[in-house]
Design goal:
By secondary structure, this protein is of the alpha+beta class. The protein has five helices and seven strands; from the N terminus they run ααββββββαααβ. The chain folds into two domains: 62 residues; 98 residues, no CATH class.
Length: 181
């Protein structure tokens, strides 16, 4: 995982976390001893917990601001994310599938997979597919695209694979390499 996406705490963050731990402990001890001040104790504990998970929240935010980009042009579809570059030319496209998982909705759980007969291809998460208008481009360029399968995939909450398009002459092309049918 790239360094900027790993949860990290700064020295000041450790100091703030330690100070809230001390304040939470003192307020909690005071509330237990006197039977009052439970609001301050609860607030201190809440701040301690928030400071504990803050690095993870910040790392998740950095991941959301990923530099991933999908480009759709006359040549084909290309996805770049940092040093990663995947592409497939329209002329080489053999099939289009939608993979779904049960991991959502907090994480990506729908992926468009565009595969060439030579085993190469491009995997596009739904968020990027939506922002780049990938489905619209596929509908315009690929006659026979199965919109009913697209709708079924969008409603899926389990691990599933939906083939939404296959090149008509795919029987003559190389078999799907490394992909599920």
């Amino acid at each position: 995982m790239p360094e900027n996406l790993v949860p990290r705490r700064t020295p000041l963050g450790y100091l703030a976390w330690g100070a809230t731990a001390l304040a939470a402990a003192v307020n909690l001890a005071h509330a237990i001893r006197r039977g009052t001040g439970w609001g301050a104790a609860a607030g201190g504990v809440l701040l301690f917990v928030l400071y504990a998970i803050l690095p993870r929240i910040e790392a998740a935010s950095r991941r959301k601001r990923s530099t991933a980009v999908v480009t759709i042009d006359d040549h084909g579809v290309t996805r770049t994310d940092g040093e990663l570059r995947e592409s497939v030319a329209w002329d080489d496209l053999a099939w289009v599938r939608i993979f779904t998982t049960s991991a959502g909705p907090a994480v990506d759980d729908v992926f468009f997979a565009l595969g060439a007969g030579n085993g190469k291809g491009c995997l596009v998460p739904l968020e990027l597919a939506t922002s780049s208008h990938l489905l619209e481009a596929l509908q315009q360029r690929l006659p026979g695209l199965d919109n009913a399968a697209v709708a079924q995939a969008m409603g899926s909450t389990t691990e599933a694979v939906f083939t939404i398009w296959k090149r008509p002459d795919a029987a003559k092309a190389a078999p799907d390499q490394g992909a599920l049918s």
